[in-house]
Amino acid sequence: MKMPRTSRAAVVPEPNAPLVIKEFEIPELRPGAALLKVANGGVCGTDVHLWHGKLAGVPYPLILGHEAVGRIEAIGDREIRDLDGNVLTLGDRVAFHDVHDTCYACWNCLIAKAPTKCTNRKVYGITMDSTKWPYLIGGHSEYMYLLPGTHIIKIPDNVSFDGAAAVGCALPTAVHTVHRSPLGWGKNVVVQGAGPVGLMIGMLAKINGAATITMIDQAPNRLEMTKKFGATHTLNIRETTLEERKQELLDITGGHGPDIVYEATGSALAIPEGIELVREGGAYTICGQYTDSGTVEINPHLMNRKHLDIRTVWGSETTHVYQAVKTIAQNYDRFPFESLVTHRFTLDEAQKALETQESHASLKAVISPHGKQ
Q1: Burial of 154 by CB count in 10 Å (0-12 exposed, 13-18 middle, 19+ buried)?
Q2: Domain spanning 171-312, CATH architecture
Q3: Residue 174: CB atoms within 10 Å
Q4: What percent of the chain has pLDDT above 90?
Q5: Phi (first) and psi of residue 8, to 5 degrees
Q6: φ, ψ for residue 343 (rounded to 5)?
Q7: Amino acid 207: pLDDT
Q8: Which of 202, 215, 238, 348 has the fewest Cβ atoms within 10 Å of its own Cβ atom?
Q9: Pairing of strands 188-192, 260-263
Q10: H/E element holding 110?
Q11: Where in the chain is the domain with CATH 3.40.50.720?
Q12: To which CATH superfamily is domain 6-168+316-367 assigned?
């Protein structure tokens, strides 16, 4: 198979600027590298925030797309194995961990045991520079250059590319989030935000035996979808007041309130409400604040008086991606993963894809540069 020589990609020239389509030369593959023919480049809420310049340390111009899946188009002069030890061959359908070069040698990795805060890590489609080799570092392109050392995993045969849409970001983040919480059998759970991450947290709560799962959002289409992924109750913030939501949750939980509240909104305004909603002695786990959505006023006395366990979540580790792929494959007949993809766009429609995701009209929008695979 002859390797393609060029690839088109959607580029953000600078924050808030319209996207432009540019053509890049595909560099020669170094030993251990692979060229990915992108089937789906997911459009994440983080991509919208990056378009608006809301994350520090991001180089522009930028090729967005940190959650791509596709086929191995070419491999460098060294054998590559996936996370299960399988030798990768041309045509294999794969996903990968978007984080590259976690060193496991810096202070954060070795001493703090916080590899998601590794000072050497780089993230495809977020902190990698598209003006420097190997250029094709984001999934909103026809092809991606996967650097040597990228953690790749085969997509199981029973999972389609659309079914794997949650692998790149949403489900690994959700896996990390529930690991950092006391989720267990019989818990009463609330999830703020019914986007892809919140939806996957609700699903994991169902798999782990939660007694009740209440999803809170403002988009009726998203709330309706949560019922297919384990939600027992839904609350629309546009149709209820905070006091009404608090009372509803007391009624659902027998007068005590939820044991765990998860924040997956990306809005700072959700944080004071989450503190209000969780029961005394409960847990509040925050994972949606990846980009800066501003400051809010909170009452530390209320947190202290309620004796809350508050934890935050940053990014994901390779183990979370691995668990995400296995979870989808093992539960493929139980949950409608393919229905997560509600909107599909061509590469030339990348601007429209971002705007659609920003409007919450879509649950998961994808860019399919080569058409549906």
Answers
A1: middle
A2: 3-Layer(aba) Sandwich (3.40)
A3: 31
A4: 93
A5: -85, 145
A6: -140, 135
A7: 98
A8: 238
A9: parallel
A10: helix 107-110
A11: 171-312
A12: Medium-chain alcohol dehydrogenases, catalytic domain (3.90.180.10)
Give me the percent of the chain exceeding a pLDDT of 70.
100
Return the SS3 of 38: strand
The predicted-structure confidence for 186-221, as pLDDT tens digits, reads as follows 999 999 999 999 999 999 999 999 999 999 999 999
Q: How is residue 130 written in tokens?
A: 């598209």
Report pTM.
0.95
Residue 1: per-residue pLDDT? 65
Instruction: Give pLDDT tens digits for 141-151.
Output: 999 999 999 99
Query: Which phi and psi angles does 18 have, rounded to 5°?
Result: -60, 145
For the chain, give the mean pLDDT. Answer: 96
366: nearest Cα among 119, 47, 52 = 47
Query: Which are the contacts of 205, defined by CB distance < 8 A and separation ≥ 6?
Result: 178, 183, 187, 189, 191, 213, 230
**Cis peptide bond N-terminal to 258, omega within 30:** no
Neighbours of 36 (CB within 10 A): 25
The answer to whether the beta carbons of residues 192 and 271 sit under 8 Å apart is no
Residue type at position 9: A
Interatomic CA distance for residues 92 and 211, integer angstroms: 40
- The HSE-up count of residue 194 (CA atoms within 13 Å, CB side) is 27
